[in-house]
From TrEMBL:
Organism: Streptomyces colonosanans
Membrane topology: Multi-pass membrane protein
Name of the protein this chain belongs to: Lysine transporter LysE
Membrane-traversing stretches: 6-29, 41-65, 127-144, 156-179
One GO location term (cellular component): plasma membrane
Pfam families, alphabetized: LysE
Cellular location(s): Cell membrane
Length: 211
């Protein structure tokens, strides 16, 4: 496989993956819709940090442990499910509080509009998802030409994924910001947080029961 063919083919695969609604989309949209653009970009950078780490570890062969070791996969799977369930529960619970900033969550799930807080949230949600590691183990090597340096080509392909993710995240943040005035109304915020919390909780449960 030629390098240009590998790059375009991989871009098509991860492009479809990026456009598929999922946990990352829910986190970015929810954060941006509440007017926290700085935090939303922190979430984006955190997600992409996780993507780069998964790509680098796969290129080094480390993430093969997830498929070779049932225990390693199970530990990461349950840690990820617990974190997502905790995030979802806090998000939904706070919508029933009749306090000022009722939808402001504690630091890891939310409130302050800081880049660092969003980065931590995005990084944790990505790295605690073992399916990202399994995806990279299963897919990335197929697009590395036999005569190409494995690590360098792996990072190049990961860079393609990162670039597409940033472009799509920009679209998501711009779209959410356009509806920001309406979505920041108390009733709309409650609905948004309950829907997002439910989506995140569903992902957590699916991760917990998946094989």
């Amino acid at each position: 496989m030629a390098m240009s063919t590998a790059l375009w083919s991989f871009a098509l695969v991860v492009g479809l993956l990026t456009l598929t609604p999922g946990l990352d989309t829910a986190l970015i949209l929810r954060t941006a819709a509440l007017g926290r653009r700085t935090r939303a970009w922190g979430v984006v950078l955190g997600i992409q940090t996780g993507t780069v780490l998964w790509g680098a570890l796969t290129s080094l062969g480390v993430t093969a442990l997830l498929t070779a070791s049932h225990l390693a996969y199970e530990i990461l799977r349950w840690a990820g499910a617990a974190y997502l369930l905790w995030m979802a529960a806090r998000m939904i619970r706070d919508t029933f509080r009749g306090q000022d900033g009722a939808h402001e969550e504690v630091q890891v799930t939310a409130g302050t509009d800081t880049l660092a807080g969003g980065w931590r949230q995005g990084t944790l949600s990505n790295l605690l998802n073992p399916k990202m590691g399994v995806f990279y183990v299963a897919v990335l090597p197929q697009f590395i030409p036999a005569d190409a340096p494995h690590f360098s080509m792996g990072l190049l392909l990961t860079g393609v994924h990162l670039m597409l993710g940033l472009i799509w995240s920009t679209v998501l943040i711009a779209s959410a910001s356009a509806l920001g005035t309406w979505l920041r109304k108390p009733r709309a915020r409650r609905i948004l947080d309950r829907v997002t919390g439910t989506v995140i909780g569903a992902f957590a449960l699916r991760l917990a029961v998946s094989d």
